[in-house]
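#lab-general

N.A. 3:47 PM
ok so I finally got the sequence cleaned up, no stray characters, all 193 residues accounted for. can someone with queue access submit it? mine expired

B.Y. 3:52 PM
send it over

N.A. 3:53 PM
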Amino acid sequence: MLLLALSTGHKIGLGLAVAAFAGFALIVSILVPRWRPQFPGRGLPVFLAAISLMFVGMLAAVEFFGKEGGEAKAGAEATTETTGTTPTTGPTTTGTTTTAAPSTTVNVSEVEFKIKLPKTTLPAGSYTFDVRNDGKIPHDLVVNGEGVKKGTPLIDPGQSKSLKVDLKAGTYDVYCSVPGHKQAGMDLTLTVT
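B.Y. 4:20 PM
back already:
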C-alpha cells in the first residue's frame, strides 16, 4: 500500500536501495562462504562496519524516499468545511424580490485511487458535493482554483461528508489531499462554464 502512495522517482530510489541491501546480504551469506569458508575471519571488524553502514544507508533511504511530496502538504493545509454555509442571494428577473440561489448537489464517489464525478464540466453556480468514501482507506476531497480552496475533513471508509462551494467560470483542481493519493490518480480537472 505504501508503494502506491509514492511517486515514480521515489519508488525507483527506494527499490535501488532495497536491491543493494538485499544483494549485499545474499552475496555475503551465500556466495562468499563458498570461496572463503573462514569468512569473515580476521576481517570481522571491517565486515561489521560494512553491515552497519549498509543498515544505516537503508534507513536513510527509507527516510528520504518515503517523504510526502510538497503537493500533498499543500493539500493538507486546505481549509475544511462540512455543511451549514449560507446560500448566496441574487436578484431575479421578476422585479424587486430576491431569492436564494439553489445549490446543486453533485454526488462524488472516492475509491483507491480514483475520484468519480457524474461530469467534469458544470455551469457556474452554487454546489454541494456529497462525497462518499467507497474505498477501504480514509480519503478527503479538495476543490482548488479561481480563488476557491475548500475541502472536506478526512472521510473514513463507508462514510460521507458534504462540501458546499460557489464556483465561477474557470478551471478547478479536484483531488484527495491525503499524502500520495493525488499522485496515485486521485486528481481531476473540473471545468466550470
